[in-house]
Design brief:
Distance between the termini: 28 Å
Structural class: alpha/beta
Pfam family, one: TIM
Number of strands: 6
Shape: globular
Keywords: Cytoplasm, Gluconeogenesis, Glycolysis, Isomerase
Number of helices: 8
Pathway: Carbohydrate biosynthesis; gluconeogenesis; Carbohydrate degradation; glycolysis; D-glyceraldehyde 3-phosphate from glycerone phosphate: step 1/1
Largest sheet: 4 strands, parallel
Enzyme class: isomerase
Helix content: 40-55%
Order of helices and strands: EHEHEHHEHHHEHE
EC number: 5.3.1.1
Length: 182
Amino acid sequence: MEVAVLASFTSIRSVQTLVDADKARVEVRRPGHLAAHLRCLHRRGLRHPGSRSLGVSYVAVGHSERREYHGESDEVVAAKTKAAFENGIVPIVCVGEGLDVRKEGRQVEYTLAQVDGALKDLPADKAKDVVIAYEPVWAIGTGEVATPADAQEVCGAIRARLAEPVRRRALPMACACSTAAP
């Protein structure tokens, strides 16, 4: 089993030092907001010089807070996903629906659209390494509780979508599902 610590950018060096001192088998990973920085660097034809030396190998992209508070669309998430790979970092693509979508019963359709958007035009050799993280956003701070069955419904749909012939390019891939309690 592999464990990733998604520390804030300003904490990466400190977390790495603690992990190294304990000789723990935990890798330090790049936080989600830095993906925008990587994309800007990429546009200028640059690479992020410190990524590998800091032990960074994963980045969270499309986190619910980035989508909601920073207006990150599926197109932006797709661009960040590509930028992560171009910088030698594996993206963890975050998907999930809010309470309004859940109450309308559109959670599967909505989340699959996020997955499709994030993987749009991604080459097969890269798509197979993407990690999808499902977060039932509707269960955060709402008093609602996401059950394992709720998570399995969406994760099962994600797995099925990725197994479709057109999307076989994305296999094998992990689907990390989380449930949140109030």
